[in-house]
């Protein structure tokens, strides 16, 4: 028999798509939610917030002065406020969304993202049992407690907590346990980066027009500035890498002057900041797709 609370819930969700319904459920549970678009990436800055004109909210440890009404700042836009989640700009985003994410650190949680079977086997031998959620390639292990996020702390292992987002894939199985020191210690380990390896599979787009650059100095300066931007990123590395790839491709992606050597330089800068080769490839592919390259 349908209870009155169920009827109210059905009316409340009337006209909402599955992603918004999920986000509202997460918010009610205390998990700050946000929409993801194609490629499992957040929605980009609106024109008013482009180039950090609003104060660069994702580059701050706490939400800054930006009062943008849309899901404009990745993990920093994640919210538990149902009025925000269902506002006009957010509703339009949910209609374009292809997944739901949440900010683990905002709920006092840490996600150990295990990307393959080897990483899972390592976790089973070295980490305490906790709530486990299956993913496309591996598993998310969820712990009670927040910490700094870090990428590539071990082969196939990322840590997502503060200033990061994780894709919502369900509640999984098991009981969540306290964040162990073994996980905290992973973020303090130095990351070994292979500068130029077969893992870098992305290539420069083929020429589709006449080169507008009169001198290779212009291209070299652009690549150097892109490397510097990635290298100097202190937070929101995912977003910085993607936006930098997008800027490079929008300027140099159609004329044929961009080479695989340039791509390798960009990927190396990103991997030095802790990005995995897969994340680099995904960001490059998403940027090319957005620009129609």
Q: Main attributes?
A:
293 residues; alpha+beta; four-stranded antiparallel beta sheet; 10 helices; 10 strands; globular
Q: What's the Cα radius of gyration? A: 20 Å
Strand content: 5-15%
Find the count of extended strands (DSSP E, 2+ residues). 10
Characterize the overall form: globular
Q: How many helices?
A: 10
**Helix-strand pattern:** HHEEHHEEHEEEEEEHHHHH
Low-confidence spans: 1-13, 58-63, 190-200
Largest sheet: 6 strands, mixed
**Overall residue-averaged pLDDT value:** 81
Distance between the termini: 54 Å
Q: Give helix % range.
A: 25-40%
Structural class: alpha+beta
What this model shows, in words?
The structure is a single chain. The protein is an alpha+beta fold. 37% of the residues lie in helices and 14% in strands. It contains ten helices and ten strands. Strands 4, 5, 6, 7, 8 and 10 form a six-stranded mixed β-sheet that branches. A hairpin with a 2-residue loop joins strand 7 (150-154) and strand 8 (157-160). The longest helix is centred in the last third of the chain and has 16 residues, at 216-231. 37% of the residues are buried. Mean pLDDT is 81; it is low at 1-13, 58-63 and 190-200.
Q: Can you describe this structure in just a few lines?
A:
The chain is built from ten helices and ten strands. The protein has helices spanning 4-12, 18-28, 82-85, 88-96, 117-126, 181-186, 216-231, 237-252, 260-272, 277-291, and strands at residues 33-37, 41-42, 99-102, 109-114, 131-134, 139-144, 150-154, 157-160, 166-167, 177-178.
